[in-house]
Amino acid sequence: MELDLTVKLAIYDHFAAVGMRPSLDEIAARAGAPVPETREALGRLRAQRVLVLEADAESIRMAPPFSGIPTQHRVTSAGLSYYANCAWDALGIPAALHRPATVHSRCEESLAPLELAVSESGPGTSDWLFHCVVPAAQWWDDIVFT
Amino acid sequence: MRYPLRPLVTMEQLWELAREWYSTRLQPDSRRPQPAEMRKIFGRIGLVGEFWDPQSDAFGGGTAGAGTGG
């Protein structure tokens, strides 16, 4: 459905431009669509696993790689600050934006703060490791935990 | 909290995953990898085995196979 794509792009454009999640009203305004129809589109996008919504069915919890709420994975780029859902998504933000960024996170073993510069061609040489706890077949059983 | 040790992914591999999943995410024609594509992507960068199989039931089944990751 055309509206779903328009709403999806409105959400991602807002995240990219602002760094934070848009409200339902902001999505509707950016999409040029009425609020009730925009809300229905959010439900369809959630069903397609494009988004994860809060319990109110309209606040964006995740629009991967962006997180709608603060997390331990912060990404800065071009003077803006973003939150990622996980370490994978922290690299996904510069990959999506196609511009250099710095990932601010932490080591889950030592809890030491981590800072990783990422250019348009990826992070520099690093001996850091990503540990994925949940098998791929179960990622969407609880995508927030994953 | 401690979790069971699972496969480890290097930053080079993680960047490849990030690119595959998200490099077109802001574009109108973006789409997420489907299970067969996921398997190919994982295999190409050396992430193999049941853990990375989006349709494996080796860990008790799941729902990723019906949709996508990320």
Write the layout of secondary structure elements.
The complex is a heterodimer of chains A (146) and B (70).
Chain A: H1 2-18, H2 24-31, H3 35-47, E1 52-53, E2 60-63, E3 66-67, E4 73-77, E5 80-84, H4 87-97, E6 101-106, E7 113-119, E8 122-123, E9 129-131
Antiparallel strand pairs in A: 1-2, 2-3, 4-5, 4-6, 6-7, 7-8
Helix pairs in contact in A: 1-2, 1-3, 2-3
Chain B: E1 8-10, H1 11-22, H2 35-44
Descriptive tags:
heterodimer, A: alpha+beta, Arc Repressor Mutant, subunit A, Beta-Lactamase, 5-stranded antiparallel beta sheet, 3-stranded antiparallel beta sheet, 9 strands, 34% helix, globular, B: 70 residues, mainly alpha, disordered C terminus
What's the CATH architecture name of the largest domain in chain A? 2-Layer Sandwich
Order of helices and strands of chain B: EHH
Helix content of chain A: 25-40%
**Structural class designation of chain A:** alpha+beta
In helices, the fraction of residues of chain B equals 25-40%
Can you describe this structure in just a few lines?
Chain A is of the alpha+beta class.
Could you explain the architecture of this structure?
- The complex is a heterodimer of chains A (146) and B (70).
- Chain A is built from four helices and nine strands; from the N terminus they run αααβββββαββββ.
- Chain A is of the alpha+beta class and 146 residues long.
- Chain A folds into two domains: 62 residues, Arc Repressor Mutant, subunit A (Orthogonal Bundle), CATH 1.10.10.10; 81 residues, Beta-Lactamase.
- In chain A, α1 packs across α2, α1 crosses α3 and α2 packs across α3.
- The two termini of chain A are 29 Å apart.
- Chain B is mainly α and 70 residues long.
- In chain B, 31% of the residues lie in helices and 4% in strands.
- Chain B is globular and about 35 Å long.
- β9 of chain A pairs antiparallel with β1 of chain B, so a sheet runs across the interface.
